[in-house]
Every structure is written in C-alpha cells, then in structure tokens.
C-alpha cells in the first residue's frame, strides 16, 4: 500500500472526500503493521490525523471506510489508547491517530485535522 499524509486540515467528511478525489481512502489500520507504518511516518509535527474508521451509523460499531467491515474487538484493544473510544460528550464518532500516544482516539467529526490517505497497490 502507498500512503500520503496531507497537512491540509479538514473535518472528517471532507477528509474522506479528499482521499476519494485522490483515488484513495482514509487509511485503514487493520493490522499492527499498518499502525507501525503510521508510527514511523506521522511525526509529532501532527498532533493528530484522521484515519478511515468511524461509528457514525451506530454508536460503538466502528466501521473501516476501505471495505465497510467492522473493527474487531481484539484489534480495538490493541490500537486504541487506554479508555478509548469513549464517545466523549456523546459527540465523538470519528477516529484519529494521536502522535503523542501512538494510538487511536475517537474525536468529534467536525474537528479540523490533517489526514492520511491510502492507495492499494494496483
């Protein structure tokens, strides 16, 4: 896979569409290897970046944008920061990678953040 990190700050929906326009999708972290790639590529220059995971349809049911599959519970424990996802203020439905913790967090989809697109090898 090929990834691109874009420092333009967008809300989650805008980031989803921006990746689509680039014939790609917000990155999926379906395995530890992908998380490692992000850990190596996204420096602390970016406090947080959007990734392609959200529970906007059903609270607590996180879906990967790439193929609309559900995040499994085993992986959820490994890739989210402790105590997350917590749906803070009942408003957090989109997932960000947080550089400080090198793990994921759910955030308000309206927040403006850089984003990471992924393109599968053709």
TrEMBL record:
Keyword Disulfide bond appears in the UniProt entry: yes
Keywords: Disulfide bond
A Pfam family annotated for this UniProt entry: Lectin_C
PROSITE patterns per UniProt: C_TYPE_LECTIN_1, C_TYPE_LECTIN_2
Annotated protein name in UniProt: C-type lectin domain-containing protein
Protein source organism: Lymnaea stagnalis (Great pond snail)
InterPro entries found in the cross-reference section: C-type_lectin-like (IPR001304), C-type_lectin-like/link_sf (IPR016186), C-type_lectin_CS (IPR018378), Ca-Dep_Lectins_ImmuneDev (IPR050801), CTDL_fold (IPR016187)
SMART domains noted in UniProt: CLECT
Domain called C-type lectin: residue spans: 1-118
